[in-house]
Amino acid sequence: MWSGRSSFTSLVVGVFVVYVVHTCWVMYGIVYTRPCAGGGNCIQPYLARRPKLQLSVYTTTRSSLGAENNVDLVLNVEDFDVESKFERTVNVSVPKKTRNNGTLYAYIFLHHAGVLPWHDGKQVHLVSPLTTYMVPKPEEVNLLTGESAAQQIEAESKPTSALDEPVSHWRPRLTLNVMVDDFVFDGSSLPADVHRYMKMVQLGKTVHYLPILFIDQLSNRVKDLMAINRSTAELPLTVSYDKISLGRLRFWIHMQDAVHALQQFGFSEKDADEVKGIFVDTNLYFLALTFFVAAFHLLFDFLAFKNDISFWKKKKSMIGMSTKAVLWRCFSTVVIFLFLLDEQTSLLVLVPAGVGAAIELWKVKKALKMSVVWRGLRPECQFGACSESERKTEEYDTQAMKYLSYLLYPLCVGGAVYSLLNVKYKSWYSWLINSFVNGVYAFGFLFMLPQLFVNYKMKSVAHLPWKAFTYKAFNTFIDDVFAFIITMPTSHRLACFRDDVVFLVYLYQRWLYPVDRSRVNEFGESYEERPQRKLHAD
């Protein structure tokens, strides 16, 4: 049986290694592009001819542009230098159609200087929406005093049904890039990602590709969006430009496609925005480190869940295990999941929390069947057959919880009353969940004390699931890295560092109480009680 479990774990680790190697190979293929070795299939860069270029940005309410009618010129950069970085802020007039929950588009043209883009056969252009639709964030109010006067006026000016409907929001940033490498492509093996951004022209006997213009959509963040109302006449737009290499361009195209694929799979704009933040707000080398950290996090998550479930499936008694600590972990995990759900946290954080909550509920069901607290439901305990270790475990557990309640309950009630008086919430449910989760985050370490107290009294840690603890410990330190990368509530971020202390204390107890073969292990067995294997007859 042991070899079967070992083989399965080895298979999982092997698949993980193959996945990491394959991903590294794919990333290398993205960053490195093989140049043309010569011959008639080579495609030369038009920028190598050093043409005089001009950058023009227009706005219109139409998604397709056929002529220069009904467009507004918002930015015109003459003598545009593709090597020079710049950033300019302009005021854009908002049409009435856009103010009435409509859409506004930006058309970016890169064309020859002194020639209108509609009359230039060698111009390149892209279109990007300057607006997006999002449901406004629910307003937070003081639950005892009600809404403020300003909030009442604003709420009365909107229909009740409109408060839950998506409204048009302004994207105040437009980031442009031009690929400046004098790279010669092989026409027989053009990369598919770059090919859709390329426009070819025939100059004599040679084929050239025009400047590759790119719009960086990853720089548009949800936190920067501005709601558009009917009184908005003008809005600021920051147009920034920087050159980009071919390798980085291909990488960025793939990242944008990945974010778009997430939205197609049902991820909201806010969830996709968390992924954008990882790419935009992180150094490229740190981003590569983040990828490997995330891959190991996924592996350790799977192994921790697998060993935790295996441990509880084989466990025969609650000797040495604090039932109240198990109940508390279940309660705290469910409360944290409901809190993250109420805060509309990223699915990157929400999904693992939901899986953990489901496992904790199953563990509580299993623990209650074994616990001496429910000995009235166990026939062997009614006749005094329960072991002395079980009784001692329950006695120590109850004793620790009694002392802990003197400190814990007043602090939790006091914190809930204080937040009700001084903090604004969306609803009474939001206040209740926040009160519970603040107690979980603030005093979660204290609720681990019953298990630590039981370990101290029994002078043993052999009853704990150390394999699962080891994988969870690795993930806890990995979570410390993600706490600075992924957007999450501050209390949840601080809880990541609190868990570090918990695992360090457990490791100290494991060192303090060495293994004794006469002690009962996590499966309700001791080494001395195991039946000796029969020797094979020669």
Automatic annotation (TrEMBL):
Gene Ontology cellular component list: endomembrane system; membrane
Translocase recorded as keyword: no
Keywords: Membrane, Transmembrane, Transmembrane helix
Membrane topology (UniProt): Multi-pass membrane protein
Major location (coarse): membrane
Intracellular or extracellular location(s): Membrane
Keyword Transmembrane found: yes
Catalytic function, reaction form: a 6-(alpha-D-glucosaminyl)-1-(1,2-diacyl-sn-glycero-3-phospho)-1D-myo-inositol(in) = a 6-(alpha-D-glucosaminyl)-1-(1,2-diacyl-sn-glycero-3-phospho)-1D-myo-inositol(out); 6-(alpha-D-glucosaminyl)-(1-octadecanoyl,2-(9Z)-octadecenoyl-sn-glycero-3-phospho)-1D-myo-inositol(in) = 6-(alpha-D-glucosaminyl)-(1-octadecanoyl,2-(9Z)-octadecenoyl-sn-glycero-3-phospho)-1D-myo-inositol(out); a 1,2-diacyl-sn-glycero-3-phosphocholine(in) = a 1,2-diacyl-sn-glycero-3-phosphocholine(out); a 1,2-diacyl-sn-glycero-3-phospho-(1D-myo-inositol)(in) = a 1,2-diacyl-sn-glycero-3-phospho-(1D-myo-inositol)(out)
Transmembrane segments: 7-28, 284-305, 326-341, 403-421, 427-449
Coiled coil: none
Pfam families given in the database record: CLPTM1 (PF05602)
InterPro entries: CLPTM1
Family: Belongs to the CLPTM1 family.
Record's function text: Scramblase that mediates the translocation of glucosaminylphosphatidylinositol (alpha-D-GlcN-(1-6)-(1,2-diacyl-sn-glycero-3-phospho)-1D-myo-inositol, GlcN-PI) across the endoplasmic reticulum (ER) membrane, from the cytosolic leaflet to the luminal leaflet of the ER membrane, where it participates in the biosynthesis of glycosylphosphatidylinositol (GPI). GPI is a lipid glycoconjugate involved in post-translational modification of proteins.
Name this protein carries in UniProt: Lipid scramblase CLPTM1L
Annotated source species: Rousettus aegyptiacus
